[in-house]
């Protein structure tokens, strides 16, 4: 709409766990071994087919929700060209030195043999109960610092006490970590204790509590001081409280050596780095003992700590003690009784604890219920944190990290802005190496080949960047092989020749596929299928995804763009909140609180769903999906807009053709100029909101404009131009000007709404353009129209006319408020109204505004007065109420105030109090009271004319001024007044008003009848009701009998006939029914042949009526009297 070419290619993420799991469920497979037995080639083929299983459904949903994207020219991550682009990207990283081999602790499923990303693991957590233990790590006395040796002098044995929730990792222990800033204490057990504190946990029948809480006399244990009270409750009875013998900071423990719980039989010669105390920033005093056992192969923090200390993890002592099958290995570090046991089984945990107890290393065992990650494929399979050989993109390199932060800070705009330096910026500061390899079958193969020395090769490594390069490396005679697929089963069947040593047997590909997040990170350039010009493709202007993608897709995009092209991947990023259920819970299948979009598209419509979600809050805030509010959004906006457009089409189709195109329609009317001025403000506000991604503000602005300004003000007042009231005399062409203005407004509103809710406004825009041009065309779509800009509508801004309309609206509001105070029927016209003129308005504007006010308030005549004339009018319709200001008079005259009040009463009559209780108090205290009527007028005239009131009594003279009195006004009977708004209403009623009142009631009642009949006819497949025969019998409610005088005049009866589309020749009006006719009417009303209407009366001049009505289609040949 703004004239830009926007390429919106549909993209299909074809690799990753969801696809694999879908196929595995279908085949009943759960492990990698089962997949390999089934056949990787067959499995991958089924995965490729599964990607397109829901293609038609997704495309239908995409179209139905109004998601603009090109489905025909789509891209998919399984396409040959896309995968080639990924290979090209990986080769560029290889050439720049950003791709390296190494170890990384990753979530790993020994049952399936697959590694997972942390994002995959997030959906697989389960609550489980595990055995945890507190374990002794005896200190080596020779390694202790002198100060600590002196403090522990005489201690039989000193041990470090550590807690672990994974006892199976203890054979892999190499270090203990402490926090250098925490204080640690050594506590001595003075005598043997076997009873645990009341409420402590046990391990079950095999290990009773008396066996697991075991100490030796005189032993000393080291724990964090902050955790000692909690440990006392768990480990010691009241009779065996520990005694603190030493206290020192964690920094003084660093370097101390200890004996591992499971020492290797054949340890290496140089073990100075192993089994010692080191500092770890991840250690805290929240749980455990303040000491953490470190096994680098089974914990990410453990692994990173060892790497930072320069550990050689290739040493046998640091290698795995658990195999990839999840079972203890048969090496020297694992006790024989544990070898071959599955570490994910509870029995294995018990075996480990038995060994610890036998070796007197176990202090306490307790149960812990916690959330533990399970396999995404099978929720019954536990995952291990397992160090795997992997390939990394070195995002942790300081140069890369700094450059990413710089690009993010200088060239990327986020909405909300706080994400740039907050959630996303903090993640960039701590960015780590990105593991891009996965042990799976379905994915883009890692294009790295190694010439293995053990197979007679040279050890060279090669990264292939395209299918052409791959073909060039094939062994002689295979160059013409067909490469129409680059998945593992294809490329692994090829034999490459080493470019260094020319070996034809030693080259094999690294057995990994690429992380599917690498797939998505390549999307900005890989979707174009052009590896030669990847760097020439422009930076993406805009991306949008959920807030969880700050560590996912947003990061991957920036990481690859920085390392490949040294530029940002996108210019602007909109971070979206989550859509939750009505209670604020995340939607999921397990909770059964998901939403079927098709149901709501079919019930409320896609427009309503979009409008509701966009309008409820800012895009980056979480939102709760509540079905009743979706319906409310539909009613608040689209139902109103539909009714407004329907009214416009009805009036436009009724307008004579010569009036539609002829004449000068420069829109001089105040109402037209006002709505265009308001529209210009809306256009400006919406443009600003869209630029700031504050779509909820734009929605609220449009809702207010359509619901209030357009519907409640413009359309309601515009009906005056189409009214049959002879008292309304607008300028020639007013109808056409009104409808043309309204069409302009609807066109602009349609264009503003189009990006938010694209369906209904497109239909509306096409119909409006057809009425404007005289023909239908696909080019009339709202989505092909120009976007409204503030420059387009700046000439419509008119502060003066908005001020004038503000005056009119305030008078309308005041009139409705006055009407609400009384019991006058709304359709009973008022004879006259007087309003105070706005001095800055043109006289022609006053004439139009007065007529619009008269129409809005149902007033026959509106007189616009100057402010002086209006004040005079107020004095005519109000009588003053004058009361002495006792506070001021008492403060000034003190004891003489009573004499003054007596003198005033002699002059102007006694003070009157309406309330009897107040009257008694006033008589007793000589006040408060007031003068009304002529007495008040007399006193007020003297005060206003002379400026003061002179009162003499008992030889004293008092000079009183206007401020010595409280002046209020009482409205005379037959009037209603709002002095603040400048409005006076004449409430008197005459026969002409009663006739008009009755006509309006009958018209309204017949319209309701027509609606009811129309609904029945439409249900039967018939058209709407056209011209009708109308029979109306009017009975006046007065002294129990009908009036002899006609109530409904001929003029108003003609209005009824026109307004109800009644045939004037066969329609009947009976206003003097004799008693027999009334009886027949009553019977017919009870039988349903006639409809009856009660018209409420008002005062003596309008006593009320009972009206009998019959409305029949003219095509029916009926006698109106035969009921």
TrEMBL record:
Residues 1-617 form the Aminoacyl-tRNA synthetase class Ia domain. Its EC number is 6.1.1.5. The keyword Protein biosynthesis applies. GO terms for molecular function: aminoacyl-tRNA deacylase activity; ATP binding; isoleucine-tRNA ligase activity. Residues 672-825 form the Methionyl/Valyl/Leucyl/Isoleucyl-tRNA synthetase anticodon-binding domain. GO terms for biological process: isoleucyl-tRNA aminoacylation. It is an enzyme of class 6 (ligase). Keywords: Aminoacyl-tRNA synthetase, ATP-binding, Ligase, Nucleotide-binding, Protein biosynthesis. It catalyses: tRNA(Ile) + L-isoleucine + ATP = L-isoleucyl-tRNA(Ile) + AMP + diphosphate. This is isoleucine--tRNA ligase. It comes from Seminavis robusta.
